[in-house]
Every structure is written in structure tokens, then in C-alpha cells.
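Quick start: read one record
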Amino acid sequence: MRHLKSLILCSLLAIDTDTDAANWAQLAGERAQNIAIPYVPQNIFFNASGVSHPMWSARWGHAVVVFNQTIPRNDYTEEENSKLINEGMPKLVLLGGDDLVQRTLQGGVKASAGQFRNDIWWTEPPLGTQLQWKMEEAHSGLGYPMAKSQMKWNQSNKGRVSPPKWPSGPKISEDMTYMDWIKCQDVNLQTLPDPSICDEPAPICYDDITEEGCHPEAVWKRDNMWSPRRGHAAVVANDKIFVIGGRGSENMRMRETSMVGGILGYKAEDTRDHATNHAEVVLKNDVWVSEDGLGKHWKLVNPGCQDHQEDVLLQTEVWTSNQPNLSSPHTGIIGAKCSTSSDCYGSAECRYVSTNTSGKVCVCPMFSPREHHTVTVQHRYVALGEKSIHREDYIYIVGGFTNVRQSFCADRPCGSLGSYKQALDDAWVSNDGVHWVQLAPAFSSTEFQARGAHASLLIHDYTPDKIGHDRLWIFGGETAAPNVEETHYFNDTWYIDLPSDPCCMYHNNCGSITQPLQKYDIGVCLPSSSDWNQLSSSNWTGRSGHSVVYEPALSRNNFKQQMYLIGGRNGDTVLSDVWTWDLQRETSWRKDFDPNQWYKANNNGKLYFGPSSQDQPFSLDETPHRSYLTGDSPISELKETFLPVTPTGEELKNSTLPTKISLLSEEDAQILHSNGIVNIDDLANANLQTILKFRGFDFPGEKAKAIPRICEAFVLANALLDQCTLQNNNRALTRGKSQSVRKTKPIDHSFSATSMVFGETYFSTEDAECNDLDCRINKWDGCTPIGDQVAVDVNGIGDVLVPQTTFDPTNHIKDLNCRQKPKGRYSFGAALLDNHVLVVGGQGSDQSELHRDVWARDDSFPQATISTRPRSGTHDSEFTFESNEGGAEHFEYKIMDAEERLDVTPWIKASPNDKTDVSWLDNKKGGPGEGTYALFVRSIDPSGNKDYRYSTSTNVHVWRYVPSLPWRLIISCTCSGIAVCVLLHFEYRRRKRKAALERYAVRRMRRKFKSKALSRGLGEITDEDWKALYRENKVIEKEKRKSRKIVPVNDEDQSITKSPGSKRMSESIRSKRDDSTEERSRRSSSRRKRRERRSSSIHKDQSGSPGRRRHRNFKDKYKDKVKKDR
């Protein structure tokens, strides 16, 4: 399984020992990384109409240009040029290419699909985004937002080819060629016998080309464009897109001498509206121009030639025929003989090229047909007045491959298709694409060797010693010649200084009409062949098919001029490395991921570059990219990262770097090296015996020195490979299962080399394929616990102790970054768009691997900022985060106990749109409770770059967290206390009232008892007598209440009870039923006597005091109350 992971990692992320590249963000194509969501195209790519995600097909040999991109001007300052470039709205345009793919099917059968293309696609950075990224909501079940590419490709021209047959006219149904299709282009009119056939046709002709009087050539003029091709060049000059040369596929008759297998003729079919006749691909040197900026409509400004330029003819195509009538030497082929220039195609001229040859031949006055040449543009400006600027764009062509005809086979030249591949070393220039001036003749230099598939660019040099000069650069390439079997790949660098003023300034004829360049301008306003200069050999490997991109001086890069050399091939090796050169400060190239690699970082509004130097005080001695690892990285790069933290945060006031400590000492690394474990991939794929040997268990008689932390390094190596492997499912992009943050226990984060991670396991070590003990023992790796197993009998070694704990790499794997880059390629497109270097498509390691993707190089590190932070000494717990880089709004935060130097949490993903609440620190919610904590936050951009330094002014906050008071408990207790007090108050009042009533009842009982005793003549009554009577009455009353509860009530009583006043009547009925007749009569007599006494006393004491009246009124009210209660 680990070997499979390593294989997938190598194939998807292009990890190889010979090549490295900077971290790149994938903008488009099938997802090949785990950080961001690219623009994923649909498989339909020939016609973009009705397709939601259109995109060009996988291809190579295409051309890319950036249209509407502001170019630095020599008469502007650096600040003015930077402002112009930043305000531009450029478009990236892709033109043509070859999407032919050869694959081997089952049974070894080879099949191919695809063809040359001339379709045109374009894209532009969306408004409101940087580098075409935007944060999207939780995607595909991952549960957290991710950066999603906003790139969208549009098809401006699906490509057009000539019909296979004439649809009308005198040649109806006859085969036609590409030349017939474009004959009505303005540049060809003078060669036509009757130019009137190209007059603007009637509107009906565009609807039905077969209508009488309609000339198909005139109708096709609107649709004419360059033929499908590869290896061509495209540039933007004079606000127009130029397509120049290349190898094209045209509908033309193939020479019978080039046919094999008995094919003597050719056929043309109109199946699927394209030609299928047997036709050969041809080299072109025609020049097409599109003025709309998107390649919708094209105009032929120079048809080119079918013959070579003069110096190529004289050097390569002088041969002698064995035919009697062709005994003298000849230049070119027999078919190139001519009498007048009208006998030649296109721009070719008929003339003598040598006194040793017989007759005139067709000679091309411009560069020969070629492919894989380079084309660059120089923008020249001159001020004619205060507000008048005259501008001319000069197009330079250097080198390339052409086909030459040598040797003799019967009466024809030999070679593949009658020709051999030949590299060129000439240079040409034009300011209109029509008239060309040769700066350097072919095969004239003894130092600058002929080459093709090289790279070139033209830069504006602002260095003080080069004021008024621009510079044309040439990089690498490969040789090709008929007499040379071995191909040589160059790693040299050549340049030539160019004047920056237009040639019209030297001739005083600058005006609204641009004057064509002339031969006499060489040495005046144009360089000569002797002006070429070579730098010392570069430190990058010789290559061809690579690309070089120039980054002008801008405010974004602190006004540094840099060049980037990318990819290519050297023989069968396809490269993916990236080299950077600072033109103003260095004389050599720096390779990405080297310790001295340049990087960009923003610190308090200032841009710093590495490595350290006197004028860059914050630069580092070692680039942060060293922590970007692959399976081929040294095992010494497996390190633990310790964040700087103190209770006061004093160390973090200025930008501070984390401390990194390797898991393995130098001595341990040497032991591993001596046993063949050199890189991370070797360690992750080590077998059981190797791991046990490093643990100190070896075969009998062998002594093995134990490496203390070998299991930790082994687990971390596997976790890194797993993290860097493309995840095809929707689970989290790191190994292991996520746990609840609130259940996190502190992780020891001291600087002890033996510190171990403890707490809940974030890293799953269970093998899903093994359910029983025997299976787990058979697949044991030497470091993973096996249930409760203490020891395992290993064949040849004996009993081996099984580790009882597992190293959890979760906290450390987050600090190790994966190198993220496109796979190696050549013959691809590259450009600078939106201040980033882009790579588009290309050819892979073999003919079956074509790329359909877009990648952007990103050497800038993002900087997170805590915009909202809690106050110290409070229970505030909400944070909000921001980033200084668009698309880098994917945040991770980590909380540490600043006093104990413990990790409270690992790195946790945070939402960019919502607040991050850490109130779970409260011990009432299961957190650690009150204490001094430090929160670190970092942003991650789509290329995987992260904050590499920390400061309390930006991405660190140290504060004292005090849990909030238990207000719920306090409020509930307060309310409960108030309720108890209220209840006690009412109870007190009730009891007080009850006591008053009882005292009144006692006084009444005494009077009653005394009166009864007096009536019976009992004499003196003591307190004990009436108290006994009172208790006796209470018992009697209690017994009566009980008896009233259990005695049933008859229907008559129920009906009475239910009548109005039912309560009092019911009590009266029950008392009558219970009391005896004697008791009732006694009570009746007693009541009667009391009424008589009361009435007699009232009549007697009517003049009594108010106090007595009030007392009597109170007693009456009390009696009524007692009656009511009964």
C-alpha cells in the first residue's frame, strides 16, 4: 500500500530526483492537488457553445499571447510604468497547437486521435479577485470553505479549414487546396488573372454560395485564417495579434514520390466537413494579423514563401543531378526554377543566387519557412511634442528549424518528405510584418550555434549604465543538422543590446505613417550580427522546448526585474524545474527550493526578498521553502516545529520564526544512510526487518544500534506521503480522523527531544483490511501497536517487543508542506498574467501524455491578520481573521497555554466569513479554564504557501482568559432565595393569624365553660378544667371531620348540596345527620340563651364605651368567620 501511495504521489505531483519547482496553484484542469478547487473543464472542447465549462483540448506546440497588457515604456519612470501595468485588464489568448495523442491499446495495438488545430481561446482575470480565486462555501462534503478558481475559458474562434471540394463554379466537385481558399486575400490580388472575382459578393451569396454569380473565393474571404498548425509563434504588436510560421496541415496534394505502400494517388472526401485527402504537413512562414484582439477575424499580410532564403539555399541545397541534362550544380529543387517572380509563390523572388548554378531560382526575401522559432516584440517610443508620442513595435525572429533538401535519390532530393531537419541561427526584424530585414545571416557565426526550440525575450533595461537601450535575450535550445546524428542541448545565454528610439527618429521622418525598415538601418538604429554577446554558461541543465518569462519592475516586486526559466526537455528527460534570475543584482540563476532561493514577503508594508543581505535586514539565511517536501527530500527534513510563546508575548512583538528541530540527529541520519535510507520515500517504504534493525532488534549474532525516535520518523514519513497524495474522495485532506475541539487535551510542546504527543488520538493507525489478530501481525510494520499484544515472534529474529503507544503526527504534519507543482513538460505556453507566471498545456514525458491544465507560480507568502481579538482579563472569546492575499482566506489557528508552553489544540481550520469562538476554553464547558493563552493564526493560499513568521501585531494574540461568572446559577439562586423569602413571609403571616384566632378561640372557650359551670353550680373553675374541655372539643371536632369524609351522601342530600349555597347547606345536613337529638336540643338551647343575654346586654349597655362596641363588633365578625369556615 505504501509503495502504491508513493507511485501515485510521483505521478500526480511530478516528484523526481532531477527536477524541482516552486509551489504552484492550479487554475484549471483535472484536479491534481489537495489545496484548492480548479476550473474543471468538460470533455467537449471543439465547440464551446452550450457547454457550461468549455476549454481547449490537451495539446502542445501552441502559442499564447497576452493582449491588452500594458508594456513598460522607456520614457516613463518605474512608478509610472508600475501604475500602468497594474491598471490594465489583460486577456490571455491561446492559438492552435497539436492535440494528436498516440496510445497503445490492448494487444499492443497502437492508435492515435487528434490533429493540428487553429481554434482560439481566451480568458481574463475576473473583476474583484486576485489571481482568479474566490472562497467558496463548504465543498463536496469537506465541511469547510476552499479557494475555488474563477478562471473561465471562452472560445472566440472554433477554427476554420478549407473545404475539400469546390462547391460551385467551373471547378465544381473538383478537389481544392488551402491556397485556393485564401486566394482572395488582399496580398494575393495582384497575382490573380482576374481580381474581380474577389469583389464583395451579394448578401445572398453568404446564405447560398451556389447561387449564380457568386464566387466562393470572395465569400470565403471573411472566414480565411491561418491553417491548423503547431510550432508557430504569436506576438502582440501595434495592438494586433500576429501569427507567424509553424508547421501547418493544409489540404494539398502529396507528392507521389513521398507515398509508400502502393499509394499513387490521393483522394478528397467531405465527410464531417473537413478534408481527409492524403496531404503532408508543410512548414510555413506566412504572417497573419487579427485586429480585434480575440482572433475572430484574420488578414493575411504576408503569404510567405515555399522556398528558402538565399543563404540557406547556398549552404544546404546545392546539389548535382545524375541526369545528363542536369550535370551542372543546382540550387534548390528543380521545381524552384523560374523565369520571372510570377513563377514563384507568395513573396518569393526569381533571381540568380550564384554564378556556379544554372538558371534562376525562387528565393525568399524574408526568413525561410520554419517551426519552433522565437518571436519577440520591442516597443519603441519617441516624444514628438508635449502631448504627442510616436510608437513603433519591432518584431524580432531568431532561429528555428527548417527543412533542407540534400543528397540525391534518382532526380529528387532525399530525406523524410524530401528534406532533412536543419537548425538556423539567423535573425530578422520587421515593424509591420510585411517587410523584413535580416540582422544576422544564417550559418555566419562561429560562436552562436544554430538552434531551435530555444527561448527568447526582450526586456526594458532600466539599469543606470544601460539607459536608452533594451536587450534581446536567447536561452538554450537544441541543434539539428543532416550530417549530425547526436542532438546537443544548450544551456548558454546570449544577448544583444538594442536602441530604444524608433528608426524614423534617425531619419527625421516620424509621422502618422510608419516607414518600413531598410537594410541601411543596420548599425544605425538596428543591431548587426557582430553585436551578439554571450554570458558564461548557466547553471541550469541544457534543454529545449522550455519557456522564459520576464517580470518587469513593479511595486509588487519592489521594482526588481526578474526572469523565470521553466521546464523543457533534455533528450528523453522531461524537466519541471524553475530557475530565477534577478537581472539587477545577480549574475547567476537560483533554483527553486534551494537554500538561497528568492522569496517575497510583506512586512509592515515593506517587501523583502531572501536570502539575507545588507539592504534586506529581515531576509533569512535559509528560504522558508525548505519546509516544502516531497518523497525525495532528505530524511533530515523531518522536523518538529515549535512556535515561540511567552506569557507576556515579548518575544513576538517583532516578527519571529518558529523553531524547527529534526526528529533524527546527525548520527542517526548517518546510520540510516549507511543502510540505504536516504530520503523520506525510502524510510516510508522500509520493510519490517529494516525498521526492527533501527529499533535495535537484529538477526542473532548481529549488533544493531537503536535509533531512539525511528518510529516517530517512520510514522511522520508515511503521514507526509499520505498528505501529499491526491485525495480522490471527499474526506479531509489530511490523514486520520477529526476529533471534537472541546475534547482536546493539552499536548506537551517543550523543547525536549523526547517529548511525546499525548491526549486523544487524531491519527488513525488501524488497518481497515485487517479484522483479526493474525492478519495484523502478518502486516505489522514494526512500529504500530497490535491490540494488547506485548511481543511478536518475527521470523529469524525472535520475540520483538511491540510498542504500546503510537506517535501521533497530527500536530507536526501540519507544519510540513507538500511541494505542489505541474508535471514536467515541453513545448508549452507561458506568460505573465495578473502579475503571476502561468504555464499552459504542453507535451509530457511521452506522446500519450498531453496536458490540459493551467498553473500559476506563487513565490509570495501570505500574511494573516487578527482583525478582531478579545480583551485580556475578560471572558471575551471571539476572533476574526483577514489575509493580505486574495485567495488566501483559508485560515488555520492554534491555541497554546502561554504559561505552561503546552498545545491546547492542534491547527484547526477556521471559517473566513464567520467569527471564531473559543469560549470552549471555559472549564464549565470542558475546557482548561482560566489562564494565559496565545492564539496563532495563519492563512493558506491556493498554492499551499502559509505564514512562516509570527508577530503579536499581526497573527498572534496573547491574552488572559477569565471564564465568565455562572450567571445562570447566580440568577437561579437569587430567584430561589427571593421565592423562599416570600413563602416564609406568607407562612409567617399565616401562622401569626392562626395564633391570633386560636387565642380568641381560647378566650371564647373559657367564657363558655365558665358560663356553663356557673349554670350548673360547679363553683370555682380552674384553668386545667377549661383546657381539658378545649382539648376534648378539639378531639370531638376532629372526629366529626373524619366521619363527614367517610359517610355517604344520599341523592336528596346531593341535590341539596348542588343547590346555591351548597357548601353551607351541605355542612348543615351532615351535622344534623351525625348529631343526636339530645345534642341538637342542647345546642339549640344554648344558642337561644346566648342570644337572650346578648340582646339584654346590648339594651343595657347602649351607652357603653366605643371600645366595648368595637370589641363586640370584632367578636361578631369572628363568629361569622367561623360559621363560614364550617
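The chain has 19 helices and 53 strands.
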